[in-house]
Amino acid sequence: MSDAHTLGPWLRRFLSEFIVTERNLARNTQKSYRDTFALLLPFVSSKIRKPAERLAVRDLTSKRVLQFLAHLEDDRGCSVQTRNQRLAAIRAFARFVASRDPAHVEWSGHIRAIPSKRAAPRSIAWLSKAEIEAMLDVPDRKTPRGRNEYALLLFLYNTGARVSEATQLRVHDLQIRRSDGGHALATLHGKGGKTRQCPLWSDTEQVLAELVHDRAVDDAVFISRHRKPFTRFGVYRLVERCADRVPALAGRKITPHVLRHTTACHLLQAGVDINTIRAWLGHVSLSTTNIYAEIDLEMKARAVALCDAVEAKPSRPWKESKGLLAFLKSL
């Protein structure tokens, strides 16, 4: 079978050349697409009893892709959002193949015609100030490990950083204890290679200064108990472990993204304007940030109180105007 029809060479070009070199997409996008095909290929291979290395492009029929998407939801317990994310990766691959080989245009059209599944909007989970303070009290700050974990939790709450932004943070990204007296800042490296600077509270500045005082400028700021940089999984486990120690959070799924939502909601409650919150969180579109304006019930209650209807005044008794109809006819 020629390379033009074999799936493997196309997939290598798509993941190694197109995504990285031509599109300059983020490393996390490449990993997400990779994970999609790491699940899809074994599934299709088992369906048609052919080794993954011998699969042809046309073995990925729209019917088998639909079966794979159903498998994600029914057998793996994935959400609709995850199902749509996997489909987006498959569509992108089909678009890439068709753009390089006109013989696959029809096949690509069938794959790209698979519709995304409508998903109910997720409710935004966030913590009250008492709940986030209880989580911050969990790490034992008398030990080096506890101080490191406390610093990471406080940093996530202060900046609303994504997990990838926190794990990629290096010492040279921090501007703390500045000689010019300027405000402490952290430079975060976000999606698509975008960077932004986020102000640090004085408590966060002090904790981070103590954490990195003997580190090289290229060292990671947050290091696990194994003396290696925190991984995404490590951050998730830390947040889950600390949340499990807070009785008020029993039965709730607390993730680092919940801390990000918490930061946004607390900024909103403090009176920070929505555009500043957008820049703080690194959102490209203001519409993404607007979701936080809809979830604070206290702010809604205050808005309703300000918009109370004016009491109706007693109306004057109606009197028939005999000349009204004559007036209308005269127009």
Description:
- Helix content is 53%, strand content 4%.
- The chain is mostly helical and 331 residues long.
- The protein has two domains: 7-112; 129-304, Intergrase catalytic core (hpI Integrase, Chain A, Orthogonal Bundle).
- It has a three-stranded antiparallel sheet with strand order 1-2-3.
Mean pLDDT, nearest integer?
88
Low-confidence stretches: none
CATH architecture annotation name of the largest domain: Orthogonal Bundle
Give a quick account of the main beta sheet: strands, pairing sense, barrel closure.
Answer: 3 strands, antiparallel
Give the SSE string: HHHHHHHHEEEHHHHHHH
- The amount of helix comes to 40-55%
SS strand fraction: under 5%
Helical run tally = 15
Could you give a short description of this structure?
The protein has 15 helices and three strands. It has helices at residues 7-22, 27-48, 62-74, 80-100, 105-112, 129-136, 144-159, 163-167, 202-212, 232-244, 256-269, 274-281, 286-289, 297-306, 324-330; strands at residues 174-175, 185-189, 195-199. The mean pLDDT is 88.
What descriptive keywords fit this protein?
331 residues; 3 strands; globular; three-stranded antiparallel sheet; hpI Integrase, Chain A
SSE blueprint and pairings:
Blueprint: H1 7-22, H2 27-48, H3 62-74, H4 80-100, H5 105-112, H6 129-136, H7 144-159, H8 163-167, E1 174-175, E2 185-189, E3 195-199, H9 202-212, H10 232-244, H11 256-269, H12 274-281, H13 286-289, H14 297-306, H15 324-330
Antiparallel strand pairs: 1-2, 2-3
Helix pairs in contact: 1-2, 2-4, 3-4, 4-5, 7-9, 7-11
